[in-house]
Amino acid sequence: MTEQTQKTEKQIFAEFLARKNLRETSQRDLILDEFLRREQHISAEELYDEVKQRDRTIGQATVYRVLKLLCEAGLAREVNFGDGTMRYEHEFGHEHHDHLTCTACGKTIEVVDPAIETLQKALAEKYGFCLSNHEMYLYGTCAECQGR
Amino acid sequence: MTEQTQKTEKQIFAEFLARKNLRETSQRDLILDEFLRREQHISAEELYDEVKQRDRTIGQATVYRVLKLLCEAGLAREVNFGDGTMRYEHEFGHEHHDHLTCTACGKTIEVVDPAIETLQKALAEKYGFCLSNHEMYLYGTCAECQGR
DNA sequence: AAAGCAATTGAAATTCATTATCACTATCAC
DNA sequence: GTGATAGTGATAATGAATTTCAATTGCTTT
Q1: How far is Cα B115 from Cα B142, in angstroms, rounded to an integer?
Q2: pTM of this structure
Q3: Which of B84, B17, B95 is nearest to B44 (CA)?
């Protein structure tokens, strides 16, 4: 199943590159592959460290460049937790979701509430806006950390 | 009324400084005063430019420092629109609110929906979290920009 | 008033994430 | 092959924010 998903994501990337008249290079393949292995939100720097272990010669500028391509291709999504570092998560095969973060331990879980989504759209329309997307970050204390 | 509000905010700041054994300086007063004049979200850099017109000798580090103090004092709030620059808005006398931004013209309006707030709290509790705060950014196209 | 002392400041240096530059290399169409 | 073009890594550059530090300011105690 993971194999299947990866294959599909790689196909999407290949098609994206072809459509844009860009080339499929070993670096791009490697970075995508490593990105797909991580299920967590990852920063460009962290991904660079991982990728470097497989190819010592890769440059971090390339990692930044490929992450931008992955976002364009609809495979990655930027997530901003406000700590000054942009993080990236899988977009393909993942429903839209928001984030619930524990301010004590840093644990983050993905959440969705269709009712909230509906209300957001209605709220925007109330002001004449046509809502295209949104970000919602919930911060609190998780069950474990409340115990302490 | 503005006078009244300003006086109160200045009092709050003075009390905050006293409580922390910090000093009320001309620079701090000036920066707070200039911050209060702006009703819009403002970046440290923009505020620095404004303040500089009234006191050429002020340093930008001081502006950053005072903005941080204002946040601690509950007078300012950080807002992150994800463009790499932190902005600040008035906190005191302003209800909690979220932001609805037009991606075409950049216009931002403040919105609140009590129903959404309630659902957010319920959503967090569903996962065992005790919600302390949240950020919600809605992006879309405003009425005027839809016309074009 | 003088002295002591901690808080404050501005300028400059520094950090950190990200982007741009540039010389060189790899790849594609012909 | 031969050019044109895309891609690369190293490095420099950027921009926001923070830290450093010597000098100054403002209180407190004499």
Answers
A1: 22
A2: 0.85
A3: B84
Tell me, letter by letter, the H, E, C secondary structure of chain B: CHHHHHHHHHHHHHHHHHHCCCCCCHHHHHHHHHHHHCCCCEEHHHHHHHHHHHCCCCCHHHHHHHHHHHHHCCCEEEEECCCCCEEEEECCCCCCCEEEEECCCCCEEEECCHHHHHHHHHHHHHCCCEEEEEEEEEEEECHHHHHC
Q: Nearest-CA residue of chain B relative to A132?
A: B140
Can you give the pLDDT of all 148 residues of chain B as single tens digits?
Answer: 555 555 689 999 999 999 999 999 999 999 999 999 988 899 999 999 999 999 999 999 999 999 999 999 999 999 998 888 999 999 988 889 999 999 888 889 999 999 999 999 999 999 999 999 999 999 999 999 998 7
Contact between B139 and A134 using a beta-carbon 8 Å cutoff: yes
Are the CB atoms for A89 and A76 separated by under 8 Å? yes
Give the per-residue pLDDT at B104: 87
With contacts defined as CB-CB under 8 Å, which chain B residues touch A136? 120, 134-137
Other CB atoms within 10 A of residue B92 CB: 16
* Joined tokens for residue A7: 């294959």
> Among all strands, which nt has the closest C1' to B25 (CA)?
C8
